[in-house]
Amino acid sequence: MDYGQILRRAWQITWKYKFLWVFGIAIALCRGQGGGGGNFNFRSNFSNRGQMGGDVPISPEVLRQFEQFINSPAFVGLIIGLIVFVLILTLLSIAVGAFARGALVRSVNRLENGDDMDFSGAWQEGKASFRPLFWFEFILNLPMLVIGLSILALVFFVFYNFLQQGFFEMQRLPDEVLQQFLMMMPVAVVGFCFLICLSVILQLLIAIFTVFGSRAIALEGYGVTAAFGRAWQVFSKNLAPIILFALILFGISLVIGIIIAIPIAISVGIIAAMGIGAAVSGLWPLLIVLIIGMTALIVLIVAIVGGIYRVFAETLWTLVYRQLVGLVPKPSLEDDSPFGASELTPP
Fold it and tell me: Is pTM, for the whole model, over 0.70?
């Protein structure tokens, strides 16, 4: 396998066929750079009690109303609504990501088979493999969804127990609350660490199956279930080149991240200085505009650069997959359908 040639060809396709960037940006926005996650930070004003003379930062009346809300049916409805919203957003993300990945993979395969491609043709390619890719990625994302909801449930359990035990409304922790705290926290920490470690392992497996399983479906016509076996077969038999290309992509993504971070950090510093000036001067509308503008600019830059990188990465893995499984251009295209050149029957 000519590693240099594959890398050069992947970049040539990425730069020449810029309509593919639309699908790369869609993947970058929906799937992120290897997944998303929450940053649960439980810092509070209680860490400053020593500097506040033991005063309660929140009035008992506010805490009482908050506790009533948590114990009310409205809170249960809010939790259910949030779960439904997360599920809908997850399904939408999976759908867009599956469509875009199918369009990219099949379009690159068509280009390597000597076909001419444009945005319309790439869109049709995405439609051709959408359904099996959607269900494939849906199955892949189920464990991470369960882990994410479990982490949120664990966080809520800890917070709710703190509230029930009066942790937030007492100046000092009584012995029974301290005992409850000491009994609960080790379990919570162990459970949280277990879920994090499990998510890391699952993310690695998901990456492997996403790269090779999606191409087994899009390029070789495998079904959803059979694609898992095919993906593992291709991965396990070609560890050396796959690990090498993965390390190359990791290095490229690291360099891109550093390059993006520098101008973003400078922009954030400039906007922060301007925002402080606006806040001191009482120009709150200007501060809000600056924050919105800065956020939009950062998202735009990250989306575009991340989208281009996703096109390069998806193209690279498609070229590698073609080499590993022996897909070669056909000498002639006798099928009149726009998808005939990329539909291969699995062995």
Answer: yes
